[in-house]
C-alpha cells in the first residue's frame, strides 16, 4: 500500500465555516456589512489587546493601506528585512517610498537591531519588522531604536497570530500592524487581512482607503482603493478565530516533539521572552538543502517548503547588490517541515524518522 504524502501545509475548513457562509448568503448582506464589523471587534479583543482593527481584502492590502495611513510616501525610507515574502517590501514601494533592506539575526530569522541601527538615514520614516514563521521580532530593541531616532515602528505580523513578546501580543507594538488571513496562515478568512491600529486617526484613514475614500456614500474624502472584505470572508474568519487557540496549542506541541527528537539539523530556537506560534517549523540544513528536501519527499513522503530561496533585494523587481550575510545563509539553509494541526502522532514519527535518516545519510 502506497503511503500518503504528508503536506507541508494544510488549510482546515470545516462544517462550521460552511454554515457561516450559508448564513451570510441567506441574509442577503454579502458585501462589507455586520459580519465584517463583528469580526473586527472579535479579532481586536482576542489577539491585540482591544486595539481597533480594520478588515481588508488581503494582507498585502493591509500593509499598503497601513503605510499610507501612517503617512509614508515619496522621499521616505522604511527599513525592512530582505528575508521574507516580497509583499513586505512591495507595499513600501507601492507608496512611492523606498524599502531599505537590513540583515536578520541568525537564531530567529527576524530583523537584527544592530543592522537596523546601521541602516538609518535622515530619510528613514519607520522600521517594519516581520514576525517571521510565527516568532516575534525583538520589539524591545527595535522600539528603543525607533524612539532614539524619532522614527515610527510598524509590524508585519502576517504569520504570527497569537505570538507574544514580553507578554504583549504582536500587533500591539507598532503604529499599525498587519495580519494575513490567507488560506495557509494559522487562521484564514479564505482571503483577507486585518490591520491593527494604534490611533483612531490611522484606523479611520485605513477605513477610508479601503472603501474608495468614503466613509459616507458618494462623499469621497481621499483617493482610495477597493480593498474591502466581504461578509462571506468575515464569517469564515469569525469561526476560525474561535479555533485558533486550539490550533496554536497543536502547533506548539508538534514543534516541541519535533525539536526533542530531530537530529542532524539545526532546529528552531525560541527567545526566552517570546511565544512562538509556529506558522512554520523551520530548520537549517547545511549543505544541499534542496537535495535534502527532495529526499524527504521522494524517499519518505514528507513534504517541506523553502521560504524564501531568493532574498527580496535580489529579486528582479528590486535588483540590488547588498552584503547581507545572515540573509544569504538563511536563503540557502532554511527548510520548513510540516507542523500544522492536522498532523497525528504517526505523521510526527514519520517526519522525525525521515529527517534523521536523510541527515544521517548526508553526514
What can you tell me about this protein's structure?
With 363 residues, the chain is of the alpha/beta class. The protein folds into 2 domains: 15-102 and 110-239, Aspartate Aminotransferase, domain 2, CATH 3.40.640; 244-362, Aspartate Aminotransferase, domain 1 (Alpha-Beta Complex), CATH 3.90.1150. It is built from 11 helices and 13 strands. It has helices spanning 15-27, 34-47, 59-69, 87-94, 113-119, 139-149, 200-210, 231-261, 289-300, 325-333, 345-362, and strands at residues 52-56, 77-81, 98-102, 124-127, 152-153, 155-156, 164-165, 168-169, 176-180, 193-197, 274-275, 281-284, 334-337. The strands form 4 sheets. Strands 1-10-9-6 form a 4-stranded mixed beta sheet, with helices on both faces. α3 packs across α7 (200-210) and α9 crosses α11. 50% of the residues are buried. The model has no long low-confidence stretch (mean pLDDT 96).
Can you give keywords for this protein?
363 residues; alpha/beta; Aspartate Aminotransferase, domain 2; Aspartate Aminotransferase, domain 1; 2 domains; 4-stranded mixed β-sheet; 4-stranded parallel β-sheet; 11 helices; 40% helix; globular
The named CATH superfamily of the largest domain: Type I PLP-dependent aspartate aminotransferase-like (Major domain)
Number of strands: 13
Cα end-to-end separation? 31 Å
Q: Please, how many domains? A: 2
Could you name the ranges where pLDDT drops below 50 across 5 or more consecutive residues?
none
Share in helix: 25-40%
The main sheet comes to: 4 strands, mixed
Shape designation: globular
Gyration radius from CA atoms, angstroms: 21 Å
The proportion of residues in beta strands is 5-15%
* CATH topology call of the largest domain: Aspartate Aminotransferase, domain 2
The pLDDT mean sits at 96
Amino acid at each position: 500500500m502506497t503511503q500518503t504524502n504528508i503536506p507541508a501545509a494544510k488549510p482546515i475548513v470545516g462544517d462550521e465555516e460552511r454554515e457561516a457562509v450559508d448564513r451570510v448568503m441567506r441574509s442577503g448582506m454579502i458585501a462589507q456589512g455586520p459580519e465584517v464589523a463583528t469580526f473586527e471587534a472579535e479579532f481586536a479583543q482576542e489577539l491585540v489587546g482591544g486595539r481597533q482593527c480594520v478588515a481588508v481584502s488581503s494582507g498585502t492590502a493591509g500593509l499598503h493601506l497601513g503605510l499610507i495611513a501612517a503617512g509614508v510616501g515619496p522621499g521616505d525610507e522604511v527599513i525592512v528585512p530582505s528575508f521574507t515574502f516580497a509583499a513586505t517590501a512591495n507595499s513600501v514601494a507601492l507608496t512611492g517610498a523606498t524599502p531599505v533592506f537590513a540583515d536578520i539575526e541568525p537564531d530567529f530569522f527576524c530583523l537584527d537591531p544592530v543592522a537596523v541601527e546601521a541602516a538609518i538615514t535622515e530619510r528613514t520614516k519607520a522600521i517594519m519588522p516581520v514576525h517571521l514563521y510565527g516568532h516575534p521580532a525583538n520589539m524591545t530593541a527595535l522600539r528603543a531604536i525607533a524612539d532614539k531616532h524619532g522614527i515610527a515602528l510598524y509590524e508585519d505580523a502576517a504569520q504570527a497570530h497569537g505570538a507574544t513578546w514580553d507578554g504583549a501580543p504582536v500587533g500591539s507594538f507598532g503604529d499599525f500592524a498587519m495580519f494575513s488571513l490567507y488560506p495557509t496562515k494559522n487562521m484564514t478568512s479564505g482571503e483577507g487581512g486585518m490591520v491593527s491600529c494604534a490611533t483612531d486617526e490611522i484606523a479611520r484613514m485605513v477605513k477610508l482607503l479601503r472603501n474608495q475614500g468614503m466613509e459616507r456614500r458618494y462623499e469621497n474624502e481621499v483617493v482610495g482603493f477597493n480593498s474591502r472584505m466581504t461578509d462571506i470572508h468575515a464569517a469564515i474568519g469569525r469561526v476560525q478565530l474561535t479555533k485558533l487557540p486550539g490550533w496554536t496549542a497543536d502547533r506548539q506541541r508538534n514543534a516541541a516533539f519535533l525539536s526533542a527528537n530531530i537530529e542532524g539539523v539545526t532546529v528552531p530556537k525560541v527567545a526566552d521572552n517570546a511565544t512562538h506560534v509556529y506558522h512554520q517549523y523551520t530548520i537549517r540544513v547545511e549543505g544541499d538543502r534542496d537535495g535534502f528536501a527532495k529526499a524527504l519527499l521522494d524517499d519518505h513522503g514528507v513534504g517541506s517548503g523553502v521560504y524564501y530561496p531568493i532574498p527580496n533585494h535580489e529579486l528582479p523587481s528590486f535588483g540590488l547588490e547588498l552584503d547581507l550575510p545572515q540573509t544569504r545563509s538563511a536563503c540557502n539553509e532554511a527548510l520548513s517541515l510540516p507542523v500544522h494541526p492536522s498532523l497525528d502522532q504517526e505523521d510526527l514519527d514519520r517526519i522525525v524518522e525521515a529527517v534523521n535518516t536523510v541527515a544521517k545519510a548526508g553526514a
